[in-house]
Amino acid sequence: MTTDIGGARLQAVRRRLAELLPADSLVTDRARLRTYECDGLAHYRVTPGVVVLAGAAEEVALAIRVCAEHDVPFVARGSGTGLSGGALPHADGVLIVTSRLRAIREVAEGDQRAVVEPGVINLDVSKAAQPHGYYYAPDPSSQQICSIGGNVAENSGGAHCLKYGFTANHVTGLEFVAPDGAVVELGGRAPDAPGYDLLGTVIGSEGTLGIATSVTVRLTRKPEAVTTVLAGFPTTDDAGAATSAIIGAGILPAAIEMMDALAIEAAEAAVHCDYPDGAGAVLVIELDGPAAEVDEEFAAVRQHCEAHGAFEFRVAADDAERALIWRGRKSAFAAVGRISPDYIVQDGVIPRTALPEVLRAIAALSSSSGVRVANVFHAGDGNLHPLVLFDDAQPGQGDAAELVSGKILDLCIEAGGSITGEHGVGVDKSAYMPRMFTDADLDTMQMVRCAFDPRHIANPGKVFPTPRLCGEVPGRHKGTHQLAEAGVAEIF
Ligand SMILES: Cc1cc2nc3c(=O)[nH]c(=O)nc-3n(C[C@H](O)[C@H](O)[C@H](O)COP(=O)(O)OP(=O)(O)OC[C@H]3O[C@@H](n4cnc5c(N)ncnc54)[C@H](O)[C@@H]3O)c2cc1C
User: Fold this and answer.
1) Is the CB of 339 inside a 6 Å radius of any atom of ligand 1?
2) Which of 56, 97, 142, 204 is the most buried (most CB within 10 A)?
3) Among candidates 228, 244, 236, which has minimal Cα distance to 264?
4) CA distance 10 to 93
């Protein structure tokens, strides 16, 4: 992709799209374009050059073909709830929005599959499957608003992914528009396909390899029994140790979520969830499966919690109590707004056994810097979501919070973890990629990207640090890359 001097190519794309698409599919008015200038990470804002509100898969393919013909970048957008700036538009590019593509084409009970358009809201898949005794297992906290296409792009997780796996474990097929506009089928209804795992490559690729226009998902049978527990502990160390003990004993709960004292304070202020008074940490533990198995596991979980200092062990008696327990956890991100004007939602992963040590290190970082950090996270997966609190109106606080947030990622890497568990790299964390991967690792990923998108028009500027040649950091590599030499890839 070369620079679009004066936006001449973008103007040509606008004209062509206006010829080919229905008038109400195109947004060119500056005020309306600004609606799309950011995703859930509002810190980054770019007004898109033009927006396509695709009304059919064919319109997605058409828009991409026009972009390819004019060498103009495109960015996919589902519901815009992403937390890493993945759907941040390109000023000289086209934002392709899938929110009108909301048809659930099929619920195939016999195959345990549903075929849905990419703009379908995550929770709506479960609602459609419910009359058949099924649901869609991956449950991001944003499941009432985020789209399946966005979930595929981010390989999204959720509280119940501990037992059931992430989006990648529940998508078996995609209809996909490649960056040259070709419509391809990846996978299908069968559990596996021969050859390289291109479906697996596309899932989690954050819109950098093309746009999904239809998604075949696996449906999961609703469990016979569900038991939800709220356990209060004196400290996060105790709650972390209980988590490791439960899983170490061979019990795999559907979910184990932890919140520390500051996160509890925020949730109480926002939704009055009635969590135990004086708790340094709470665990929300959910067990599901055949009733006899759940009963047996429940007794063992109680034992492990009490052995590690749980002073309160509350069991939801009915759906209303279960909903109240989950409300505190699910509202936690937004609730933090009650105790701090601004905050950063961090997303990192550590091995589960490192939880106590890393939480202590985060607490030390917080007290030495004076920056408050609330912790709310998927404890069973070791997927941390530290919420770094600050007041942007106070000079220096934003920078101090950024610094602490970055140091938390360093702690995750040092503990053998990752810079993101489920929110993706996007624009926000691309600079951290070299901290986790060697140049050779990044080169290999770039080669894959270039194989799909040699023009580099699919969501440029995301995931990988820039400027880069396909696989190169200028000044750090010797010689020209063989793909660049062959004219297959260019500088970006
Ligand atoms: C309050 C809150 C709670 C959240 N909780 C969780 C959580 O528990 N777990 C979790 O994993 N995430 C969570 N998220 C993050 C976010 O909801 C997920 O990343 C979600 O998958 C994004 O979906 P979206 O439709 O909003 O995608 P968008 O934000 O619109 O886009 C996200 C990325 O996907 C790409 N994309 C979108 N559609 C397509 C498509 N059809 N084909 C190819 N690429 C596409 C975009 O280019 C972008 O890179 C949370 C966000 C919020 C605001």
Assistant:
1) no
2) 97
3) 236
4) 7
Q: What is the pLDDT of residue 6?
A: 65
- Residues 50, 52: Cα–Cα separation, whole Å: 7
The reply to whether ligand 1 has any atom less than 6 angstroms from the CB of 155 is: no
Q: Which residue has the higher pLDDT, 190 or 389?
A: 389
- Inter-axis angle of helices 236-248 and 355-369, to 10 degrees? 160
Question: What is the pLDDT averaged over residues 44-61?
Answer: 97
CB within 8 Å of 306: residues ≥ 6 apart: 313
| Count of other CB atoms within 10 angstroms of residue 102 | 15
E-strand spans in 304-380? Answer: 312-315, 342-345, 348-349, 373-378
> Which is higher by pLDDT, 488 or 248?
248
- Reported as a pLDDT band with limits 50, 70 and 90, residue 252 is very high
Mean pLDDT of the region 41-61: 95
Ligand 1 pocket check: which of 44, 77, 327 to mutate, most ligand atoms within 8 Å of Cβ? 77
CA 166 to ligand 1 center in whole angstroms: 13
What pLDDT is attached to residue 470? Answer: 45
Residues 6+ positions from 314 with CB-CB distance below 8 Å? 229, 230, 231, 232, 276, 325
* Per-residue model confidence as pLDDT tens digits over 478-492: 344 444 455 544 433
- Total residues found in the chain within this entry: 492
Distance 133 CA to ligand 1 centre (A): 27
The closest alpha carbon to 390, from 375, 370, 408, 360, belongs to 370
For residue 454, whether the previous peptide bond is cis, meaning omega lies within 30 degrees of 0, is no
